[in-house]
Amino acid sequence: MAVSSPVRSLVLWFPDWPVTALTRDGGGLAGGVPLDPRRAVAVVERNLVVACSASARAEGVRRGQRRRDAQARCPGLTVVPADPTRDHRAFAPLVSRIEERAPGVQLVRPGLCALRARGPARYYGGEIEAARVLVDEMHGLGLGDVRAGIADGPFTAEQAAQAGASAAEPIFSVPAGGAAGFLAPLSVAVLDASSLGAGPPASSAAASADLVGLLARLGVQTLGEFAAMPPDRVRERFGERGIRLHSLSGGLDSRPVEPRTPPPELHREIAFEPPLEIADQVAFGMRVTADDFIAGLGAIDLVCTELRVELVGDRGERSDRVWLHPGSFDAAAVVDRVRWQLAEDVGKPGEGGTEGGLLRSGVALVRISPEAVDAASHHAPAIFGGGPEERVHHALSRVQAMLGHRGVLTPEIGGGRWLVERQVLVPWGDRHATGKDGIAAQRARPWPGSLPDPLPTTVFAEPVPVDVRALGGETIDVDERGAVSAVPAVLVESGRRRVIEAWAGPWPVVERTWDPMRARRAHRFQVVDADGAAWLLVCEGDVWTAEASYD
């Protein structure tokens, strides 16, 4: 069977990318402490160092070390757990920038990408010149250490970038036909470390490590020694995977560069010149853009369930907010969100997750982008319609469009120790809000002192003043140890005297002891009067109030 010859490939390698991603993606450690690029940092996965900073390397920390050994070499080492999501998130914009200069990029892993050298070389006047353009582009983005390797086949190009290039000379080119000679002195360990030599997905990294370890025990230390072994004996001993690695060792990398398919551009934006001052003018100007935004999603069978709206003022101020929808957005709903964001006080925190500040000048730019999408098939109407829920949604959406975002409110259960805090009214469409400050997150927090189920049926918006006294008429309070001064016998509510037949408590509620201005210490009681009505009472100092009643 004929084997295709290696294709000239160009590989860009970003050394210690997990550390670089940690610096670029927010630039902070746990607790919000800023990350100093000169700090000794090690990224650890499964108790092994996968990347380290130059300062850590100077102290003897190396990739592959155990965490304990790395900390012994560098006592001041900052250990950060590996986060593949962070690495991909920080690397994706760089791949997009590379594609602007040279299309057809294969994303191998965060920190390593490959592309065919022929196209960029013809455009920029040579392979070295093309690599220089890409490296300079990355330097312009603040990445000082980027290595480029050019060779026959992506595997050899990867080794050229890692073993041949340096910080002083970041570009290394292996002449055509010289791959075998370049690879010969390299250790067989690179077969295990290489991402481009891993083979098809069905091949495991553990199998490569076992094969490399066996070669070392057999006395085969370099790629040249492995390439000199007869192919038939290699196949007989190591199988097809061994033949694949044997070909790589000899510079016969027949795998082509497999460029990624760039993600579609789903966001849309519109600039206003001159800037518009009136919200209705902005909404009217957004209609065509909103139609185009929804049509672009529909072309790839998607719908938008969370919409990000960014408004940029003429003076550079910004308003950025994510809007939710109980179903999926259409063009009219997108225009409504833009109008509502302009109409509301977008600088007020705590209303639906608003970020940013007030727009103090005209709107110069509006950008809309999907924060979350879903398959259009999940939102297709049923054969006979969606029933009552669909009619309710259309009715409330029409009322909301006329009255504004907060014109239609729906109840949600929130978090808190006091019952009135757990009643939250949110705008229609925002009821699924979750996240750091979302309703679901608030409700899920531990609330020591909160009332367990079953909860009262009537919760007073404002506590109702009451008076609780003992049988002899003396006022009842609770001391610091939680002891009741006397047995509750009479409840006076709205001027009506009620005899207490049964009572339970007290249960303490202690809040914000660290803040003298907001600290609160109270005790709850449950009482039943002679008429059979049950009450939830709160004693705070010597003041009694009714928080709720059990109907």
UniProtKB/TrEMBL annotation:
Domain UmuC residues, every copy: 39-159
Keyword terms: DNA damage
PANTHER family reported in the protein's UniProt record: BLR3025 PROTEIN, BLR3025 PROTEIN-RELATED
Protein name: DNA polymerase Y family protein
Species for this entry: Microbacterium gallinarum
